[in-house]
Write a structure and sequence with these properties.
six-stranded mixed β-sheet, 6 helices, alpha/beta, single chain
Amino acid sequence: MLLHVASHNPKKLKELRRVLDAAGVKGIELVSSGDLLGYPEPEENGRTFADNALIKARAGAKETGVTTIADDSGLTVEELNGMPGVLSARWSGSHGDDEANNTLLLGQMQSVPHGRRNAAFVSVCAIVTPDGQEFIEKGVWNGRLVRTPVGTNGFGYDPLFIPAEEDQRVSGTEERPRTSAELTAEEKDALSHRGKALGLLVPVLERLAAEAEARGEGVGPEHNGALSVE
């Protein structure tokens, strides 16, 4: 089965591939939005993560004729009444500028004391098939914000976020808790918001792949001459 991941971020494809491999899911070939040509992507103007995930997944399935999985993820900060939330990727005004987003958020939280720096990563993942089936799951990863970015793994707000599991792991020791940008890919998959949401969708993907195999489908038909030859 061909599965369109509605994203240009190669790290998201790798993450989903690791989740599928860890679950032993076979028969799914992943393709990104960057691998599809002539695909008009929708504006992410929803008010919730679920809204945006469905906007992207529905558009992907409609425009390509390929089963599409999409996610909308972000950081919610308790002190900021849940913001940046769905605006996480463009919090500083420029979409995808991680450094600017992190700098702005740290400035806004500069005077907030340790006990009021609670935050959570939230991810909502949606699958939409060309025949209109829809599946959606949510994952939450609780933690807190540091004052200085640490770590080079991951992306987005990872260098600012200490997972609650890390605080628990080092409790009673002198060891420093790690940010999510210091975790290995495997550790992050097991704990993260997106990993949790994707994991909940594994049974759906297994069923869809089995149904596609029963129909004798390979990687699927050509869609708008869409598959890149790269």
